[in-house]
Amino acid sequence: MVLTRFSWPYGGRHVAICGSFTRWVDQYQMALVEGSMGEYQAIFDLPPGVYQYRFLVDGMWRCDEQKLCATNEYGILNNVIFVEEPMTSVIHHEAFRGMDMDDGVLLSTMPAEPLLQTSDIRIESFRHWVSAMLSEKNIFDIIPVSSKVSVMDLQLPVKQAFHIMAEEGFTVVPLWDDSRGNITGMLTPSDFILILRELQNNMRALANEELEMHSISSWKEGKLQLYGQPDAAVGVNRRPLIHVGDLESLKDVALKIVQNEISSVPIFKSSLDDASSMPLLNLASLPGILRFICKNSAELIQLFPLLQFQISAIPLGTWLPTTGRGSGRPLSILRRDALLSSALNLLLEARVSSIPIVDENGSLLDVYARSDIMALAKDNIYARIQLEQMTVEHALEQVYQVNGHRRCYTCFRSTTFHEILQQLSNPGVRRLVVVDARTRIVEGIISLRDIFTFLLGC
Questions:
Q1: Domain presence at residue 267
Q2: Strand pairing of 77-83 and 49-57?
Q3: Interatomic CA distance for residues 77 and 384, integer angstroms
Q4: What is the rounded CA–CA span in Å between residue 124 and residue 135?
Q5: Alpha-carbon distance 229 to 244, whole Å?
Q6: Which of 103, 284, 340, 453 is the most exposed place for a label (fewest CB within 10 A)?
């Protein structure tokens, strides 16, 4: 049994508490704390477990929204408390180092917890806190006071546009339509992948030289004709530009990015100084929102038991069937000798942003992401290679030559949820590959999109 203190610090004449530990029947009067200006308390001797409770203040049911909350099966918002026995454990540290891999630390305290269900109160309480916090903040809470964003004219030749993206390290660029005086689209690595497929599969007579004059606008229209058919392997639909206003909440921004399966969303000003002003304020993406969450949850790790759970116990990410984890879709992996064309087809048709690349034993070597295709735009490398002949290993060598050596970010099954959030909040880290700590064999992958799909209950 654990002595557990409950408090209501907001005053009132008569304050009582009722909860799952009273069978939601008995109401216990709370005592005014001596010397306080209106704080009431009650102490119960409870067995370890998860409890919900509410306060009856002057005849009205209340909830302390400054503490953990969750909605029960009847849609009622209650406070939540996790009662745990004090315990000590020995933590063993095992350093893990591998070529092209970041240093990992294996923390082992006890056997892995069984997989939580999405209805678990620990999950719901953390989701409620995240949802409430993001709903109260808008885009100005995450974008820098002074920043710049690059745009491209729709009439710019495709070849020049991708050369600029490769040189400047852009992965996505807003497109300006001068005739409309507005941002009307985005140029992404997926466009470059589709163009390469079109060039090398002879789907249209579009030679490399024609890219000098072929505009982005013409490509966007041509893409709809090629891939907008019902039987197309890659579905492309004409849709209005997905964007957000600068007064929208961070929760709405995150939901738009996740639900529309995009990496960034343009932020439009809610009001313009004059008719000729550029409406684009900046771009919003999931990394910035996750950094904001981590910054505000750093001091709350003891309040949310979920943050201390090993990732193997939380239902998120994509996993190999051999791990015994069910996933919404199977994890796609490729050997290093696989053809680049196979990797590109998989990225588009499986609607994933990256693929773990493994050796003959299934051990992680690197990750090939959609944005890596931009390395082929450097010095027109794409014009001197054949997708059906280049291997993924060779394609990665091109990435290293253009961008230099890079780290492959990993985690283990024993990594805690809090550690996962912290790692993914670092600049440049968009996914973590789950590997075996000793063999480096790939077990799963956790992306930023996975995190927000889980946190927002999408």
A1: no
A2: antiparallel
A3: 62
A4: 16
A5: 29
A6: 103
103 and 78 co-located in one domain? no
Q: For residue 223, what are the domain limits? A: 149-234
Tell me the per-residue pLDDT of 280-334, one tens digit each, with 9 for 90 and over. 889 999 999 999 999 888 777 777 888 989 999 999 999 998 887 766 677 889 9
**Residue 94: how many other CB atoms lie within 10 Å:** 13
Q: Which two tokens stand for residue 68?
A: 């953990």
Check residue 373 and give its pLDDT: 92
Written as one letter, the residue type at 8 is W
Overall average pLDDT of the 376-392 stretch:
84
Please give the Cα distance from 435 to 102 (Å, whole number): 12
Taking a C-beta distance cutoff of 8 angstroms, is the pair 318, 295 a contact? no
The count of other CB atoms within 10 Å of the CB of residue 187 is 25
What would the DSSP string read from start to end of 84-95? --------EEEE
Q: Collapsing DSSP states into helix, strand and coil, what is residue 440?
A: coil
State the Cα–Cα distance between residues 104 and 257, nearest whole angstrom.
Answer: 30
Tokens matching residue 85 = 């026995």
250, 251, 256, 262 alpha-carbon torsion, rounded to 10°: 70
CA nearest neighbour of 412 among 95, 200, 185: 95
Q: How far apart are CA 311 and CA 306, in angstroms?
A: 10
241-257 confidence digits (pLDDT tens): 899 998 999 999 999 99
> Tell me, what CATH number does 170's domain have?
3.10.580.10
In a domain, 367, yes or no: yes
CA gap 246, 109 in Å, rounded: 45
**420, two tokens:** 């996962």
Q: What is the 3-state secondary structure (H, E, C) of 395-417?
A: HHHHHHHHHCCCCECEECCCCEH
Q: Quick one: DSSP state of residue 199?
A: H
C-alpha dist (Å) from residue 134 to 42, 131, 263, 302, 342? 32, 5, 19, 21, 39
- Cβ proximity of 176 and 357 under 8 Å: no
Measure the N-to-C terminal CA separation of the chain; round to a whole number of Å. Answer: 38
pTM: 0.78
Residues with Cβ within 8 Å of 392's Cβ and at least 6 positions away in sequence, in order, are 334, 335, 336, 337, 338, 339, 340, 342, 343, 357, 368
Q: Go through 246-266 and write b for each residue having 16 or more CB atoms within 10 A of its CB, e for each that does not.
A: bebbbbbbbbbbbeeebbbbb
Query: Regarding predicted confidence, which is higher, 439 or 275?
Result: 439
Residues 82 and 224 in one domain: no
Q: Do 306 and 178 fall within a single domain?
A: no
Other residues' Cβ atoms within 10 Å of the Cβ of residue 385:
16
Same domain, 107 and 163: no
